[in-house]
Design goal:
5-stranded mixed beta sheet; 57% helix
Length: 209
């Protein structure tokens, strides 16, 4: 009896992913853009994460994102798009692009989340952010200031705003799949669901459905 119960349980669990995928409904769990936004991942499929370093929900989502990255398909690129939906978010978006310009995103990304969302540190201008980079040992303050004022970072900020406007992003965290599908945590119900829906939509793009 116990053996049959275990077999039934295993069979049920094996069916769960397919059942869940069938439940992801357009207009309920995600929305489709009438005009897709530009992707920047070349031949790879793109999953864009729109985030703000000061966002508690984005901060809570990071462990889920990191776990997902460990088994991320090779044909998918995770693109980080720092939100600048409000004027006071702009310095934090610029901090990300300055870090990318300096090649130190991996060394500062989590630390910026910890400082801004976790500790609520006052890092709201170039001097404070440059000092923070130096404090973390990833770049000299002068290097951060140079990157901050560069044409490349200004261009990245402009493209990031265009992406957010085109995708009609109104809050963070938000996922955008292949420039076509937008997933919010409110619609998805959880961070885990956001990524499950993203995986479902990425597979939809692979199959051409």
């Amino acid at each position: 009896m116990l053996y049959r119960s275990l077999i039934a349980l295993i069979a049920f669990l094996a069916m769960v992913p397919a059942a869940m995928a069938a439940e992801w409904e357009e207009g309920t769990h995600y929305r489709t853009l009438s005009e897709p936004v530009e992707t920047r991942s070349g031949d790879q499929l793109e999953l864009a994460e729109v985030f703000w370093y000061g966002c508690p929900s984005c901060y809570s989502m990071q462990p889920v994102i990191e776990e997902w990255k460990e088994t991320k398909p090779d044909d998918v690129n995770l693109r980080h798009v720092p939100a600048s939906l409000r004027r006071d978010w702009a310095p934090h978006a610029k901090a990300f692009y300055a870090a990318r310009q300096l090649g130190v995103v991996d060394g500062i990304h989590s630390e910026l989340f910890d400082a801004l969302a976790g500790e609520r540190r006052d890092l709201n201008d170039v001097d404070a952010i440059a000092a923070f980079f130096e404090e973390q040992g990833v770049a000299e303050a002068s290097e951060v200031r140079d990157a901050w004022g560069s044409f490349a970072v200004d261009t990245a900020m402009r493209r990031g705003r265009q992406f957010q406007q085109g995708a009609k992003v109104t809050g963070t965290p938000t996922l955008v799949v292949e420039g076509k599908y937008v997933i919010s945590v409110r619609a998805a119900g959880s961070y885990e669901n956001m990524l499950a829906i993203a995986d479902h939509l990425l597979e939809k793009e692979r199959s051409g459905d």
